[in-house]
Amino acid sequence: MQEDMLRTLEYHKMKNQLMEHVASDLGKEKIHNLFPHMELTVVQVAQEETAEGEQVLRFRGHIPLGGVHDIRAEIKRAQLGSVLDPQDFTNINDTIRAGNQLKAFIEQLLEEEEEVSIPHLQAYAFELFPLKNLETTIRRTISEDGHVLDSASDSLRTARQQIRTFEATIRSKLEQILRSRDAETKLSDRVVTIRNERYVIPVKQAYRNAFGGIVHDQSSSGQTLFIEPQSVVTANNQRREAKMKEKQEIERILRMLTEEVAMEGEHLSSNTATLAQLDFISAKALYAQKIRGVQPQLNDRRYVYFPKSRHPLLNADDVVPIDLEIGGDYHSLVITGPNTGGKTVALKTVGLFTLMAQSGLFLPAAEKTEATVFTNIFADIGDEQSIEQSLSTFSSHMTNIVSILQDVDDQSLVLFDELGAGTDPAEGAALAVSILDEVHDRDARTVATTHYTELKGYAYNRSGVMNASVEFDVDTLSPTYRLLTGVPGRSNAFAISRRLGLSENIIEAAESEMAADTKQAEQMITSLEARYQQAEQAQEEADETRRQAEELHRELDRAFTDLQKQKQAIYEEAEAKAKAEVEKAKEEAEIIIADLRRLQQEGHAVKEHELIDARKGLEETPPQLTKKQQQVKRKAQKAASYEPGEEVFVPRFNQSGHIVETSGKDEYSVQLGIMKMTLKADDLEKTSQPKPEKTGKSVTRVSGRSSHVKPELDLRGERYENAMTEVEKYLDEAVLAGYGRVHIIHGKGTGALRKGVKELLAKHPSVKNTRDGGMNEGGIGNTVVELK
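-> structure tokens emitted (788 positions)
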């Protein structure tokens, strides 16, 4: 794709909008280098990453990227052996912390929100190296404002303590001079200052020998000398020595830290690249929210469909959505009509939307938007006349078109603006038809705008080409910018002239000059526009009705779910209260039994076995619900649904069984012992009967003739000999239970277990037929058995 095409379609302006949403210079660089992808799989991943970023924004409102710096230069300098500055380490540590915070953020989101699915972001988070040791070392050594801390080493702490001691001594002595009686006369000002890293006081020139010491500087007028009094020379020397020790120790510490950064250089570089990508994804997601974008469905059919599309560079409140479609029933779209009215905007929208989709960006359009991947996008839009080359408008366009025709193929999208303009209308229209034919024959996808009447007929008669126009409001004398697909454009010259007050006689005379077929064509176009508007209004009403119905359905679903939860909560609360009452009764009974035993010990006639029987009766008494609580329980269970194999209780028969299959709405086929019957959901209650414990290595779901027989036998993990025994036992019980079909799950594995099962089933007298499981039944890992 050529740079001038991207500029023509204003791709760079769109990238400038996108760049407003990055958090770091790394993200800016990613967007600066952004270019449309040419491979469908790459585009798919880029779109999925944007969708995941937008998903995170919906759940959390932001993606934390504060503190990310571009530290690639610092890493390289460290690896080359240069000593880094304290501020460099601050930037490095900020970036390490930012990575750790983002990693924890994504992990916490996945832990707290089960419905969140962000595999790409999860993978990026996994790639971030914690670098805890380096982060801790820098934090203990460098302050957040970029200074080496006293705690960095014992030697540094000692040197700085000495510096502070010497400075305190110096200031004390100098302040004594400032407070002395001679100070007002001999000093220019009562302040302590520093010159050449030595503490000095400002002394008037006339009293330069009053305090002795060393002159370090003088004022610009020469009237003031900055003198280090003799009384502080020794302390200043000691301070300077301590400062040198401090500097040497700081250099040693920074060199040590630099070496650690160099050792972790590869991991730091990897983190930097990952954070740049996450910043880029965050920017794409934020931009998608800003433009109210949707994720386009991608296809390999070279088909694009942009319903209710809005050019992202136009004011969102003013832009009129348009429907654009190419590559389905027609491969070329010819937008006809006068030069005003937004034809070029429609053309640029197709081009820019395609570039955005191939860049992994959402599109400001309606749901069900579809996009494809073109390897070439060609655009001849606007007046590209070159003054330097002295080319006319027509010559400039034709030069561009010749270049396009050299490379266009069936993987190309071609955009022509005012094709054939700038020359004699008859010749220009003929050229336009021939050029469109050539591009169409190469099976490219084409959108062209023109004001030539001849191209209306071309689009109508040519297979695979569709007419379109931009609607014009004669009353306001302005375009509405709505694109009418299937309706050719018309100039509206007579209507506009009449509206502006041109004499009716002149208009009638002009109309009489028009050929009869031209008049008829204009009338047909007018009728088409009216029908298009009626159909569009009906479609909008239907869409709104469907939207309201879908919203009502969602509300009813939510209400039903809430009701189910409330019913279940009431049932659980009632059961909990009943259990609490029983526990309370047992506690009271224990107290009574204790009293009875005490009486027994005191000589009263109370037998021990009576105490034991009393306690046993209490422990075996189940929590009995009140009549009202039983009603609540039945209501809560009435709306419950059941799955095949689920244990149920049938109060009418006071017997437990299990669901075999669903027979109809709220009806189930239930196995009760050797009987199978169809019962309504109202006749059933869920049971909390625990599953039997497994013994040894057996994983069969048949636990004995006294238990309910399941519709399948799971042999996975079973030894061959045990498995054959389990199959024979299970088939006998399944026949007794009345099953017509059962499943033997043996898995795929090496095939030995499957082969043995097949051979046994072929010889078993109760087996009618067998087959491998279907796609939704486990495939060859499951054998479906028809019983006689």
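Residues 516-601 form the longest helix (86 residues).
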